[in-house]
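Example 3.2
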Amino acid sequence: MGLALSLPVSQLIQFDAFEVDLRAGELRKHGMKIRLQQQPFLILQTLLETGGQVVTSEELQKKIWPEDTFVDFDHGLHAAINKVRQALGDSADNPRYIETVGRKGYRFIGHIQGEAVQEPIPISHAAATIPLPRRGRALWNSWTGVLTGIVIAVAFASTLVFFNVGGLRSWFYHPRFRSLAVLPLNNLTSDPGKDYFADGMTEDLITQLSKLGDLKVISHTSVLQYKASHKPLPQIARELNVDAVVEGAVQLDKDRVRITAQLVDGSTDQHIWAETYDRELSNVLLLQSDVARDIAKQIDLELTPQAEQHLARSARPVNPDAYEDYLLGRYYWKKRTANGLAQSGKYFQQAIQKDPNYALAYSGLSDYFAFLTLIGGPEILQPRVAMTNAKAAAVKALQLDDSLAETHASMGHILHNYDWDFQGAEREFKRAIELNPNYATAHHWYSHYLMQVGRTEESLNEARRAVELDPLETTINNGLARQYYLSRQYDKAIAQCQTGLQIDPTYLPARIQLALAYEQTDKLAEAITELETARNAAPSLPVTHALLAHAYATAGRKAGAEHELKVLMAAAAHKQYVPPSYLAIIWLALGNKNKAFFYLDQSYQDRSEQMLYLKVEPLVDPLRGDPRFDALLVKVGLK
């Protein structure tokens, strides 16, 4: 007599062209597997097993999420139901399979063709019918019992893990992610005007995670591109080149803030972990610290003593009003427009008035003043005015808290671009990167310093690292294009500029940089077209007129160059600050080296940051070899 074990090898439920294999956890259509996450699959299974009956949301909640899971169930259930419908090609408005029943729940309305069946596994008749000695039969029966017990135990354990009973699945599935992106947190506050708060909370969470050790975290400006995006998470993970994605929502209610966060495997779209945090707004930094620490545990990231110390220090209470002003300040500063810069300065100053000991607000104020020399808000200021204020703010920020990457980067920016203290600047940039290896701005500013002092390969490495950390940020992308241009790799500079313009076709620095690379490759017509576009878009920016005049003169269009020069001289006569170095390159292109040196000397007196590019800037190549040029390099400290 043969021996057979009755185990549930194939549990199949069929409807229309679909087949659900309960044991394998698979949905198939015409025999082809359809990818479906675990939670949506469990919902489909539950609805099929209760075919025709309403399953309440509460019942699904208990079935799908363990009691110790903290998540926005309504949002999660709605999203999971939508994924089931997408897999089945179903519609909520005209359902064929899954019907929404008022505010009660859901039910399956399709025609189930087959019930769950169990198939026995026959053991080979040859093995079962060979006569065995009495001792052999006893040994065989003993081993059969053991094997049967093992198989049953494995099947039972697999079931427990599959249904995540007691969190077993999470215990077995413990991935080691080394890169992640925090997608923009949804603003669940009733006021849409609080979007800045959700964006700020996203950035703060990114900052917390960035400081936890061997973990690449994509910068806020790159993930901001996915705000309200409907792209599948695996696609976003591929585009950002990360292992995992954090998504969630934030709700601000008077003096309380609530965050819901979920961790998802970027390759499988598998839900790993979810948690909800509720704190008083004054303890918002503690909330972010707790979220970061919990995520670190989930991805098996070993926290160094330095990281633990950072989390402890960052959990200090804050002035809620000052915190909101700081978030608004950074929100406007990142716009990189004259109006945005003016708004950012106002909010940083308000934050400081409300909390005079707020180091990050002083760091923001320093960055605001520093950019007044380039963008203006509402007008471009002389370096001596803007940078003096910027340095005072940076010094105050460091005095209040020297453990922040932002404060050291701000100081490095001032020491580099105004004090021309190269050793001090490098020390500050390195310290900023040590404190937060994922702070793309620090890598970006450091790359400029390295290129200007002639350390080309190091500069390109830092610029590439900045792009890796913030791949969709226009300023960071243009920084890499700038380093390619300064290292005379013009084809790479052109390609990088085109990448930046694909991200944002309106970003003028990328268009200007593209024109410079075109000019160096003798594509003067293309260069002039790009610069005319930039000038027409921003006629108040002196740099657009200066570079267009240089291109006109290089192309032999002297009248056009002189016209642009007159525009700049008229602006200067009306007290608008025009960096003298801009006038220098126009006169150089017009063939007057004496006037070029005259304005370069003025630029040196102003301590204009354009002087720092003399060693590597292709536009001043005609001056190389002149003793006056070498003397300038020595005075600036570049030789």
